[in-house]
Amino acid sequence: xxxxxxxxxxxxxxxxxxxxxxxxxxxxxxxxxxxxxxxxxxxxxxxxxxxxxxxxxxxxxxxxxxxxxxxxxxxxxxxxxxxxxxxxxxxxxxxxxxxxxxxxxxxxxxxxxxxxxxxxxxxxxxxxxxxxxxxxxxxxxxxxxxxxxxxxxxxxxxxxxxxxxxxxxxxxxxxxxxxxxxxxxxxxxxxxxxxxxxxxxxxxxxxxxxxxxxxxxxxxxxxxxxxxxxxxxxxxxxxxxxxxxxxxxxxxxxxxxxxxxxxxxxxxxxxxxxxxxxxxx
Length: 281
Known about the structure:
Elements: H1 2-63, H2 81-85, E1 92-96, H3 103-106, E2 118-119, E3 127-128, E4 133-139, E5 146-154, E6 164-172, H4 179-194, E7 199-205, H5 208-212, E8 217-225, E9 229-236, E10 243-250, H6 251-276
Antiparallel strand pairs: 1-4, 2-3, 4-5, 5-6, 6-10, 7-8, 8-9, 9-10
């Protein structure tokens, strides 16, 4: 009898212990499942927060106005400096002390169109007359194909500060494509807006350094004439890369510049005469 009672007691203890173990295991598993669910919820919230943050940043970037690219139909020729520079507020803009105009002398065909008004004081690089002209360089990392845009302004000779936009030079990023293919692509882009060019042909290209070494490269030249402006397409391959640029010139702006240069030359000549005059002959 005592043995049977003892066995029953042991069975009861084992049964209770088993139930306790099952409860503990179930509770732990439930806790783990709960922790996993909580972890997933937190990760989901973090990911959704990241997406929301990324969306805000993207919208901010999109809302930041891209600098004006000065495409032909929208170039504000004749507008003052302050008004034009407002169009490129989000870009890196710098004023150049030297109003350089390399294109006017490096490309042989350009000499025909810029036979006057290009100065090279003391053997320095070809430039527009800084007495009446200003130059600003514009750069923007977000431009895919444009390397730099140069903006040229001119004022009347006797005026203090009535600078207005008269020329835009758009330089494209260097390419390793064949320069003839690059020229054709750019020519076709211009042709869609202005029609067939007035002329296209090969021309000689040489920087001052190249000329000093008796080196000349070939370039391609395109020219369009419209009622109010001139457009030049210049492509060369002088350093194993293709270098290309488009120049937009306002007819009225160029006339303003030429007139300012004439007055400068007249004053210069008058001053030379006065300085050579003596009273004690």
